[in-house]
Amino acid sequence: MNKYQIIHDELLKKINDGKYPEDAKLPSDFALMNRYHVARETSRRAVAMLVDEGYVMRIKGRGTFVINQNRYSFPISHVESYRELAARLNLNERTQLDAISDKDVPLVFDYGEQVPLPATEIVRIRYLDNEPVIIDRDYVLKDVVPEIKSLSASLSLFELFEQKLGLVISYAKKTITIETANTLDRQLMTLTEPMSIVVIRSETFLNDGRIISFTESRHRGDRFKSVEFSRRH
Description:
Blueprint (H helix, E strand, L loop, with lengths): L2 H14 L12 H8 L3 H13 L3 E4 L3 E4 L5 E2 L8 H8 L3 E12 L13 E11 L2 E11 L15 H8 L4 E12 L2 H6 L7 E11 L4 E10 L3 E2 L8
Parallel strand pairs: 3-10
Antiparallel strand pairs: 1-2, 4-5, 5-6, 6-9, 7-8, 8-9
Helix pairs in contact: 1-3, 2-3
């Protein structure tokens, strides 16, 4: 295992174990260099991974601090299934399949077609720490996957597409809006008061250019964050 991965894993364990609680300052790059006998680039890479995963943030001139872990870090710029995200971040999660039915893709996706797009609608509720925090509605196009009768909680759609059907996912286009929780949101998420919902709508494309699915993910605003790296050069 690379040294930066060892440093990352040990720091993450201390964060998860509460040895570095919220707002705690992590050891400096210099301290990590001395502790693990590595170059500065190695220690910085380990910490950068924690930043990217949403566990810590760097404040210029002050250091690196642990941030509120009550929010999960959702990848906006990555094409990643929820199961992959949960495994990568070691989330305490479970998925409840709410319904599978035939339904045309809703016009809210603005796909520009003059005729309806027949699809299989799959509705799932995602729980974190036994709280319902995400409602996922996937619309899998029938001209690509004619029928989906069942889907186990342990199998993601990406796994179905790639491992079971031999399709290759290439990229996704995503839009993000902030909306007020509607009546169904409040019912499925057991919300007792008005709340903002982060809504991510996406189109997923195969490597041959076809759209395979449209997805609407509705996230509780108080449990959502997105941490991404942006570089000028």
